[in-house]
Amino acid sequence: MHSLANKRILVTGASSAIGAQIARDIIDQGGKVLGTYRTTPARQLEQFSTEDSFESVCWDALNAPDFLELSSPFDGWVHCVGTIHPQPIKYMNEIGNERLFQVNYFSATHMATALVSQNLLKPGASVVFISSVSSHYPYRGGATYAASKAALETFAKALALELSAKKIRVNTLVCGLVNTPIYQASVAAHSPAEVQRMEEKYPLGIGEPSAVSMPCIFLLSDNSRWMTGSQLLLDGGLMLNA
Ligand SMILES: NC(=O)c1ccc[n+]([C@@H]2O[C@H](COP(=O)([O-])OP(=O)(O)OC[C@H]3O[C@@H](n4cnc5c(N)ncnc54)[C@H](OP(=O)(O)O)[C@@H]3O)[C@@H](O)[C@H]2O)c1
Description:
The chain is α/β, with parallel strands linked by helices. It has one domain (about 10-235): 3-Layer(aba) Sandwich (Rossmann fold), CATH 3.40.50.720. Helix content is about 35%, strand content about 20%. Helix 1 crosses helix 7 (about 210-220). It starts with 7 loop residues before the first strand and ends in an 8-residue tail after the last strand. The relative contact order is 0.15. NADP nicotinamide-adenine-dinucleotide phosphate binds near residues 17, 18, 60, 62 and 182.
């Protein structure tokens, strides 16, 4: 339906729950994936061990992406790297502030500069960033996370503008809660009643990784060829209650 046949896509953070699902669906649509992970090739990457269409490489976003030096150009790039570190502003420290910004925002800007300066995005390529509804509706303890995602969204629009001459498109998926290890960690930190209240705000329930992956496949495909600089809201109806 949204064919990615013969497209080679870079998925940064392919070891994330959402990134692994996106990598899986790219391969299922006929594409090839170069996926990055930071820690040991995680559980999520094991599913790809027999795939010819999948290669992985270790990359820590706090370092320069050296592996690109040997790469051939990509038809797409999906950036799934991200982290949270809930912290009230009163107690904010370096980990909750600078490091979070490094991972959530500068990882994308450094990678974008490396890809563009080395001509590693083909004309007509599609770039997708993963943001969060908290960039528009921040939550207590999430100041830096929300701000880093807001910065990412603005950067995506500037990148879309600068790359439009090459018909390279840049779009952002703005997601509500998705059932991943990040979400499970926050569930563990709240009482069952608080979790129930949080989940009840989602008319369609909280998302699964595939609910993010399928729109991402659409954005990577030529079917979205007239979309750039846009923000696609994936929130199960959360904003209907805002
Ligand atoms: N889950 C949600 O509710 C939700 C909602 C809105 C937006 N998002 C966004 O969706 C994206 C994926 O989230 P997820 O829930 O799938 O998260 P996740 O499973 O915790 O994955 C986080 C990913 O970021 C990578 N990463 C973290 N620090 C890194 C660093 N310093 N250098 C390189 N890679 C690093 C991790 O690599 P390793 O695992 O190899 O360490 C992993 O691939 C994130 O950008 C997140 O902010 C998630």
